[in-house]
Amino acid sequence: MANKEIIVPQLGESVSEATIATWHKQPGEAVVTDELLVELETDKVTLEVNAPASGKLVEIKIPEGETVEVGALIGLIEEGAAGEAKAPAAAAPEAAKQAEAPANANQHLSPAPRKIAADNNVDTNNVQGTGKGGRVTKGDVLNAVNNPAAAAAPTEKPVERVRMSKLRQKIAERLKESQNTAAILSTFNEVDMTEVIALRKEYKDDFFEKHGVKLGFMSFFVKACIEALKAVPAVNAEIDGTDIIYKNFYDVGVAVGTPQGLVVPVLRNADKLSISGIEQGIMDLAIKARDGKLTVEDLTGGTFTISNGGVYGSLLSTPIINPPQSGILGMHKMQERPMVVNGEVKVRQMMYLALSYDHRIIDGKEAVTFLVKVKEAIEDPRRLLLGV
Question: Which pTM does this prediction carry?
Answer without folding.
Answer: 0.65
